[in-house]
């Protein structure tokens, strides 16, 4: 009997013809976070198993918790045979690990030719546990502990407590997306939810010095680093936005400044996305939260791009977004008091029902295409996960 981490797929079980791609990607993502070639990972359509070294199981389990595509995971035990006498001996050895005072045995038997049914196995093993520990009682409806038994054709697995994983799809199975990462509360949550649906993200940040500070950029890099714990390296494309933003401030009526600025950001984001094989743009817009997030504003802003724009938190209220930000550890960084370019030059009364013809009229006042090309040509790429001294020149 040896210790092993057992992984259950959940939603991945709904996949049929292409489940092989999903499971291979999940295995690769788990191997990446473990980062130890000596640890064996094997899988079938029902489970994935991580064969741990001695004494490092808890550390590996902690790393795997942040991998999308896992419904449940647990520390368990593998028997190289399904011989019932050996299963009984293994259960006896684990009785002391049962927590609480009530339990039940739950058996799954993939080998339907096994000489005992699932119910018979549960009953016999339950009786053995009671004999080994007279302080325990059986409670099949609301037990404090569940002893899980899985009988396979050639082996068996035993495990006690299970814990929920992050669910969703393995990052990467749906391709790449570009996250508009502002530094606020909403956009990191949007990035997290996109990753949960199998999208591997890169990030884009609009830098407008001296109007935005170095601390604002550092905050975004830290947020990208936090999100990297869920997928691995996240590149940040830093766009020099000062010249374009100052031009908008001079040429566009104040009530339309935010709308025009967002249209420019979308145009730039699409160009950067297309250059880097991203299939979608992702942002943290939530319907009605600010003037640029009314349905009219979204429609007018969105029309400047042909690429799909995904808004994972569009129908979340602010408290729901904050709650999730706290769970994924981005909240404390997001609330640091450093303004990004979306919060500077904010007019007192921004338009909430913008008109497309007005936007086109105001954009004709300046050569925005040239300014966009200049900004895109001077984009800097930063990898926040590299050692600080390796990207210090950008900070």
Describe this structure in words.
The radius of gyration is 27 Å and the shape is elongated. Helices cover 37% and strands 19% of the residues. The chain folds into 2 domains: 2-164, VC0802-like; 176-394, Rossmann fold (3-Layer(aba) Sandwich). With 395 residues, the protein is an alpha/beta fold. The protein has 13 helices and 15 strands.
Q: Could you give the topology of this structure?
A:
Blueprint: E1 2-8, H1 19-34, E2 40-43, E3 47-51, H2 57-64, E4 72-79, H3 84-94, E5 102-109, H4 118-132, E6 137-138, E7 145-151, E8 156-159, E9 163-164, E10 176-180, H5 186-196, E11 200-207, H6 214-228, E12 236-240, H7 242-251, H8 257-275, E13 278-282, H9 295-302, E14 309-310, H10 318-327, H11 331-334, H12 356-363, H13 368-377, E15 380-382
Parallel strand pairs: 5-6, 5-7, 10-11, 10-13, 11-12, 13-14
Antiparallel strand pairs: 1-3, 1-4, 2-3, 4-8, 4-9, 7-8, 12-15
Helix pairs in contact: 7-8, 8-9, 8-13
Order of helices and strands: EHEEHEHEHEEEEEHEHEHHEHEHHHHE
Beta-strand share of residues: 15-25%
What is the total tally of β strands? 15
Largest sheet: 9 strands, mixed
Annotated CATH architecture of the largest domain: 3-Layer(aba) Sandwich
Domain unit count: 2
The coarse silhouette is elongated
- In round numbers, the mean pLDDT is 92
| CATH homolog superfamily of the largest domain | HUPs
CATH C-level class of the largest domain: Alpha Beta
Give the CATH topology of the largest domain.
Rossmann fold
Helix content: 25-40%
Query: What would you call the structural class?
Result: alpha/beta
Low-confidence stretches: 387-395
Number of helices: 13
Structural Rg: 27 Å
């Amino acid at each position: 009997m040896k210790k092993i981490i057992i992984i259950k797929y959940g939603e991945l079980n709904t996949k049929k013809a292409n489940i092989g791609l999903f499971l291979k990607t999940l295995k690769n993502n788990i191997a990446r976070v473990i980062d130890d070639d000596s640890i064996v990972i094997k899988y079938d359509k029902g489970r994935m198993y991580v064969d741990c070294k001695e004494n490092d199981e808890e550390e590996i389990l902690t790393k795997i918790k942040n991998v999308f595509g896992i419904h449940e995971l647990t520390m368990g035990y593998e028997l190289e045979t399904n011989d019932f006498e050996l299963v009984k001996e293994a259960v006896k050895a684990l009785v002391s690990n049962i927590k609480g005072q009530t339990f039940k045995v739950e058996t799954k038997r993939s080998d339907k030719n096994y000489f005992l049914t699932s119910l018979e196995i549960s009953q016999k093993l339950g009786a053995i546990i009671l004999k080994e520990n007279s302080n325990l009682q059986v409670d099949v409806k609301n037990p404090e502990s569940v002893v899980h038994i899985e009988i396979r054709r050639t082996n068996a697995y035993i495990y006690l407590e299970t814990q929920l994983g992050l669910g969703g799809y393995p990052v990467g199975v749906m391709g790449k997306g570009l996250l508009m990462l502002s530094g606020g509360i909403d956009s990191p949550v949007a990035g997290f939810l996109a990753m949960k649906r199998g999208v591997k993200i890169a990030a884009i940040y609009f830098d407008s010095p001296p109007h935005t500070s170095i601390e604002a950029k550092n905050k975004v890099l830290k947020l990208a680093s936090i999100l990297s714990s869920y997928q691995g390296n996240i590149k940040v494309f830093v766009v020099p936005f000062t010249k374009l933003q100052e031009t908008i401030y001079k040429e566009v009526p104040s009530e339309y400044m935010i709308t025009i600025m967002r249209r420019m950001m979308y145009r730039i984001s699409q160009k950067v996305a297309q250059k880097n094989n991203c299939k979608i743009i992702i942002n943290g817009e939530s319907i009605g939260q600010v003037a640029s997030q009314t349905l009219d504003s979204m429609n007018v802003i969105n029309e400047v791009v042909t690429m799909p724009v995904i808004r994972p938190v569009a129908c979340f209220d602010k408290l729901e977004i904050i709650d999730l930000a706290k769970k994924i550890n981005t909240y404390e960084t997001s609330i640091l008091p450093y303004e990004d370019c979306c919060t500077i030059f904010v007019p007192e009364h921004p338009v909430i029902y913008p008109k497309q013809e007005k936007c086109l009229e105001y954009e004709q006042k300046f050569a925005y295409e040239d300014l966009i090309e200049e900004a895109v040509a001077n984009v800097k790429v930063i990898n926040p996960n590299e050692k600080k001294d390796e990207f210090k020149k950008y900070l």
